[in-house]
Amino acid sequence: MQWTLEVVQVPVADVERAKGFYAEQVGFVVDFDTTVDEKTRFVQLTPPGSECSIQISSGMFDVPPGSLRGLQLVVPDVHAAHDRLVEGGVDNSGVVVFDGGSFRPVRDGDALDNVGFVHFSDPDGNQWSVQQISSRGPVTYDVVVTRVLDAPVEEAWTAWTEPELVRRWWGPTGFSSPRAELDVRVGGTSLVCMRAPAEHGGQDLYNTWTYRAVVPPERLEFELDFTDADRALLPAESIPPGVPRAVRHEVTLRPVADGRTELTVREFGYRTAEARDVSRAGLEQCLDKMVAMFGAG
Predict the structure, then answer these.
(1) Per the confidence metrics, is the pTM higher than 0.70?
(2) What is the pLDDT of residue 296?
(3) Which residues contact 210 (CB under 8 A, 6 or more apart)?
(4) Which helix H or strand E contains 294, and what residues bound it?
(5) How far apart are CA 267 and CA 275, in angstroms?
(6) What domains sit in the chain, N to C, each tagged with a CATH number?
(7) Type and span of the H or E element at 53
């Protein structure tokens, strides 16, 4: 016999307030909102991708609001979950690691699978934990491209931190970059623009890079998102098929022989092989322009 857990009751004092928190701030999907009579109402919501839902209600159960502990969600990327909570205005613990019997703030280089968490509470005080288990995510496709630059690592680093240099390589072959406004620091957001050639419409395409890690001159981690010229997010339907809302990037630089630098760029989370291949082709052309830029002196 198969037994499945379908619904967990979450005790709240104000159903409307709790519904707004879970739906609008956390991002749960509202399944239904039913009023039985003037004293009885219940709302069911489901976390995206979950087979178990929560119900918030009034007049149904004699449980003190805010008394629930130990609720746990699992995500493939706890940093992305943290960013979603911050975007929704949800107070939270930040990303923490369970280490030696207690939680501590995450550090660069920490392995996060199974031990990476972010904690938050709803307005009534019901407590939630979000745990990273990357294998629970859907099948995705990543991009890895490596190039060797004819420059020492300190100089190669400036290709990612100096606006005039970014404009020289950002965009595939035939594209130009008229604008690069950089704020390279953890939590900072840069705006970059690539302009299509006339034969492809000549339109300006904007992205933001929001930084998770900045370790000069060795490593950058950032999320690329799709925006307009004012940094407003484009609607989901404007993002190419198979491309995630925010594309996580990891840039590493290491010195190699003859004063040169090995540059590796990784992009994560494409939902189709086709989307991955298109992105890889574009990235290869960008980095070929960077190689030529340093080769030209």
Answers:
(1) no
(2) 62
(3) 187, 188, 189, 222, 223, 225, 246
(4) helix 273-295
(5) 11
(6) 7-136 (3.10.180.10), 141-295 (3.30.530.20)
(7) strand 53-58
